Amino acid sequence: MKTIFWLLDINYELAEDKPEIWIWGIDNEGKRILIIDRNFLSYFYLVLQEKISPQTVIEAIQSQKTNYPSIVNLEGVEKRFFGKPVKAIKVFVQNPDLILKYSGDFKKLEGIEDCLEDDIRYSMRYLIDNNVTPCSWHQIEVEETENKLEARTDKVCLAKSFPKAIEKTEMPQLRILAISTIAYSQQGSPKPEKNPVVIISTITNAGEKKQFVAENFDDKPALDSFLKYVQDFDPDIIAGYNINRKDWPYLLARCKKLGIKLLVDRANTEPHTSVYGHVSLTGRADIDFFDFADELTEVKVKTLENVADFLDVMKVEKRTLIEDVEFASYWDDPKKRSMLLKFSMENAQSIMGITSAMLDFAMQLSSLVGLPLDHVGAAAVGFRVEWYLIKQAYKIGELVPRRIERPYIPYAGS
Where are the beta strands (DSSP E) in 135-252? Predict the structure, then answer.
């Protein structure tokens, strides 16, 4: 059957050394859907020296096939590199996690000039090759299957074709949850190994407000209630401000200390920091709007209060302001604790207001660049440009040069 879906998130998993692309989306009936695609092979290129026959190199690799059991196929191709025609071998590999090992070995073979595109992540390779765009609508042939993964989704399907982009402009009805946390410490910065999370404030894009408050200094019941609420509300997007650097790492470490699993994604796994530096919640988009604050050049000090004030979400002079170093004294004083609760909720409200103001920009940027919504904000501007160029290079048969780390060189005025 054919289904139409809006792409929210993408990742890949290995099942018995065989890769699966997991596409998380929302179909045109508003149902949350997981599409599993087992039909896409990862690959990289061996660029040949001049006057070297591709068949010679292919035979050399095939003679060592027992050492490289994950190789599925070797194909001689004509490509371009910096506009110049080159001969290359396209090496198809079953297990994408072995690509770097294989390319490192093959680089030493006689006749090999270079190995290219071995550093493109498998799920990103899938997006490029199939012209699949985050935050956009696609059509795909699927077969519905049993949800053996116990994924938090309305249905699980197996892909019978690759997705194709379609013209459809209206947005799906997204469920969005903004969160803000406060940890307690009488002395110094809070440490999750010993200091509790005393307040978690949340607000949904439907306006529902919740606070999960520790029982004096016992935060386990509050954390348990918060996790259940996230699972029950089942947001498509979780938004925060500095959430990737502060909230998620603290919550993860605190839950570990208390023997709780921080299950806030759709695949029953804990948050993890991606190779690109952002925190990934499988099946949801985790958006840290602190990452987008750099786009607001008029705001010199990028605090939550200043950004919310600039975007006319909540004016600084109208909101409760409490410094981090005062959290403990406000929590300890029964007369002042309500002010701390008000401050925390206003933080969550500010985050939701910033989300309303900036989410369209984030989605358009994600769609243009081709990076998933949770990734595009954390990516440096140079990386966004690079990724856009990688997409364009594929379309014209141009090989992507290897990324080279260059030392920082200061300049006058920097």
Answer: 137-145, 155-159, 164-165, 176-183, 197-204, 209-213, 237-240
The secondary structure of 314-370 as a DSSP string is S-GGGS----GGGHHHHHH-TTTHHHHHHHHHHHHHHHHHHHHHHHHHHHHHHHHH-
Sorting pLDDT into bands at 50, 70 and 90, what band is 329? very high
Distance CA 330, CA 325 (A): 10
Average pLDDT, the chain: 94
CA gap 237, 363 in Å, rounded:
12
Full strand arrangement of the beta sheet holding 84-93: 71-81, 84-93, 42-48, 112-116
Q: Confirm if 327 and 340 have CB atoms less than 8 A apart.
A: yes
Q: What is the pTM of this model?
A: 0.92
Q: For the beta carbon of residue 189, count every other beta carbon within 10 angstroms.
A: 9
Q: Measure the CA–CA gap between 140 and 163, rounded to whole angstroms.
A: 5
pLDDT tens-digit profile of 158-213? Answer: 999 999 999 988 999 999 999 999 999 998 899 999 999 999 999 999 999 999 99
Quote the CA–CA distance of 362 and 384 in Å, as a whole number.
Answer: 12
Q: What is the DSSP string of 110-139?
A: TTEEEEESTTS-HHHHHHHHTT--TTSEEE
pLDDT band at 407 (very low <50, low <70, confident <90, very high): low
Amino acid sitting at position 42:
S
The answer to whether the CB of 137 falls within 8 A of the CB of 4 is: yes
Task: Please provide residue 179's backbone torsions phi and psi, each rounded to the nearest 5 degrees.
Answer: -130, 150
**How far apart are the C-alpha atoms of 213 and 314, rounded to whole Å?**
24
What is the C-alpha to C-alpha distance for residues 124 and 132, in angstroms, rounded to an integer? Answer: 9
Say which residue the tokens 């403990």 belong to: 328
pLDDT exceeds cutoff 80 at 275: no
> What's the pLDDT tens digit per position in 18-51?
899 999 999 999 999 999 999 999 999 999 998 8
Give the distance from CA 104 to its chain's centroid.
27
Q: Provide the sign of the torsion angle of the four alpha carbons 343, 349, 354, 359, taken in this order.
A: positive
Q: Is 105 within 8 Å of 42 (Cβ atoms)?
A: no
